[in-house]
Design a protein that fits this description.
- The strands form three sheets. A nine-stranded antiparallel beta sheet has the order 7-8-9-10-18-15-14-12-13, covered by helices on one side. A five-stranded antiparallel beta sheet has the order 6-5-11-17-16. A four-stranded antiparallel beta sheet has the order 1-2-3-4, with no helix packed on it.
- The longest helix has 27 residues.
- It is of the alpha+beta class.
- It has 14 helices and 18 strands.
Amino acid sequence: MDRRTTIAVLLMLGIWWSWVSGQQARVEADAAASVAETVAAAAPPAPPAPPVVLAGPLAASKDLEGCGIAAQWSPVGPRLSSAELERWKSPFVQVPWWSYAWGRLTGSLSGPWQPYGPPPGRMMVLGPKAEALGLSLGGLALANATEHEGGWRATTPDGLVVDMALTPKGTGHACRLAWHVEIANPSGRPYTGPVEISLHDVVPVAGGGLLSGYVPTMVPVASVDGGVERADAAAIVDEPWSPEGTVAWFGLADTYFSALVLPRGDTLPGAVTFDGKAIDDTHTWAGVRWKADLALAAGASRALDFDVFVGPLDPDVLVEVDKDLTELIDFGWFAVFAWPLAFGLRQLHGLTGDWGLAIIALTFVLKIIFYWPTRSAFLAGQAMQAVQPEMKALQEQYKDQPEELNRRIMELFRDRKVNPLGGCLPMFIQMPVWIALYNVLRSVVDLYHTPFLYLQDLSVADPYGALPILVIIAMVIQQRSIPLGNMDPAQQQVLRWMPVIFGVFFFGLPSGLMVYMFVNTTLSMAQQWYMKRGTPALGPQTATGSVG
């Protein structure tokens, strides 16, 4: 690949990325209005009487005492909806400068540039269309319940009387709602049938975007036999899914927030089903249903108790609600490394008082911890470079004798004490830790709406593009310092331009990740310079490479 071809490819990538960013900015700028219109169009009929919110005759959407939640508890369903968190803001609707410039050029955007969009309101975990705590008996949903002792009372066609109360439980950030359901059978005949609890909401269809994996998206979740099951909102529209096993909790969750129902006490053992229905091309009404078999003798009653948690995926909060809820924080395959890293990040934040500085400090700490494996890999690489001329000579001499060539090369490695895997094994050992740190920085709620320097939120991309540009420059400088003398010229060009080509995607990564990448790349260059300065040049007779 010559320089002209490389530049042409880069220009094409730049034009393509600008177009994608412009389209994404237009969609994001209209996102709130689009969802509101979708919800309004699909919303259920207004209740016949003003809904009463939880503990008392309060108007709809009033704060719940002690829980920092504002919600509606409607007699239609009954259902809990419009659940907002007082202490948390909704996500920023970002418009990066390149997207804004493209939007102004194409006419899809107007007005002054707002990098982080308009000021966000309170975080709405459950929307106005949500059906949380929707209760049905015998396949029939309860409707037109009447107020009863601060809750709701409904009578089913089978003559069952259902009383419901929802009251705050606990204090502080870990406050949850205690949902008590009393089902009585005053009739003179026994009752047998299913009882169902629904938790559904309008959610965007995941996927389709270039960096959609970094955009928090609510999905149906449940704990079944100790493992967390997550459902694809689009897939369950056509194929409802019922995982088998003991259910500990169920609900909706994204990267940072959740709305969950936890059966408590001797509540009936139930199973869950993920299902939904399509609203339009981009949104689905999706969620999970808990179902159990209920048997009541004539004149008998049965109580069902649940905890309802609406809040952040903060490990300290989740442990206080239920220790198993920490499984909702998805750190990927290397969670065994991620949890200590998350703990270390929090400890460093306690020392520095700033999450950005904590990320920088943690990167320094890991560089120190892995200095010797990195040095080992560096020395092994130097040793391999030193024997390259002799390897080339052997390849020329025995190019028609592959078996003899392999034997001679192994002898060369043995005589020079070079370990061909010495440069790979130390780095291979470090890789799970770096991947785990990567997942921590894109998943912890601590970085949500957390400012650092000129950034307003470390959990979203840098709308100014400064950090991605700095990372690309640092990676290019680092790449230029790597000797490529024994490599094919075409391969050299590809490797030299690789940071720029892949750097295009950095503009969509969360800022916390970019802080880590910039500091890590800068420290790697400094470490490489230091090791080169303190290591004598290795010639064919001095290569030891006895590391790894």
